[in-house]
Amino acid sequence: MNQIKKVEKTKMSRGTKRLLEEAINGLEPSEQCNTNAICDKMVELIMDRYDGATLDYQLKRMDLETTGRIIEKINAYFQKHPHKIEEVSLTV
Description:
Elements: H1 14-25, H2 35-49, H3 52-62, H4 67-80, H5 82-91
C-alpha cells in the first residue's frame, strides 16, 4: 500500500521572520545561505534582546526553544522564499 506522508507546515510569526531576516542580513554574503551560521546569529540576536524569564517566554512564544526548531524555521523560510537563495548567490 502506498502511504502518503503528511507534510507539516512550519508556522512562523512575523517576529520570527523579521528576526530571521535580520540574522541573514547581519552575516557576510558568503554565509547568508549557511543554516548553521544563520542559527548562530539568531541565537546571538535573541540573547542580546531578552534575558531571564523574558527570554524563556519569547523562545516558547516564537517556538525557538531548541536549535532543531530554529533550523526548521530557517529551512521553512528558504523553502517559502527560494528567490532569497538566488539573490545571495548572485552577490557572492
